Amino acid sequence: MKAAYTFDFDGAGRQTVEKYGQKVKDDLVKAREAGGTEAQAFALLLLTHPTSAPVQPTPVVKYASEISRSLNKRGAAALAVTAREVAENRLKTLGDVTSGTLSTGSAFGIEVFIDYFLVAEHPHPA
């Protein structure tokens, strides 16, 4: 399982997208090694999507400036759509992807959603 923010997948940072893509791929390899040839391997990527930026900068919200910058650049809805598309397109190269969005409530007065991407490794030919 890997976790990131939607701003990591805003379409501008291809290097970050590839870094997380490789980490998910590595997780699939580890799962395959642990499960043997008969088990199907899965990996999970979670993207945290705050719908607004913290009103006042606080050291508690670690990536407050990145959150603010990405939301100001695209807006919350557009950022979420872009991040989902970028993540799903990258992960589809690794296997079949099941995805969705979970409403997780709020943190520090900010509504937060979690996008999930469950990757089922492409079967290996016997």
Q: Can you tell me about this structure?
A:
The protein has 126 residues and is of the alpha+beta class. It contains 3 helices and 4 strands. The chain has a 4-stranded mixed sheet with strand order 1-2-4-3. It is elongated, with a radius of gyration of 16 Å. The chain starts with a strand and ends in a 5-residue tail after the last strand.
Distance between the termini: 27 Å
Largest sheet: 4 strands, mixed
Task: Give a count of the beta strands, DSSP E runs of length 2 or more.
Answer: 4
Helix content: 25-40%
Shape: elongated
Please tell me how large the radius of gyration is.
Answer: 16 Å
H/I helix tally? 3
Question: Strand portion, in percent?
Answer: 25-35%
Q: Strand order of the main beta sheet, please?
A: 1-2-4-3
Integer average pLDDT: 88
Are there runs of 5+ residues with pLDDT below 50, and where? none
Q: Helix- and strand-based class?
A: alpha+beta
Q: What is the string of SSEs from the N terminus onward? A: EHEHHEE
Outline:
By secondary structure, this protein is of the alpha+beta class. It has helices at residues 14-35, 64-74, 76-91; strands spanning 2-5, 42-50, 95-107, 110-121. The longest helix has 22 residues, at 14-35.
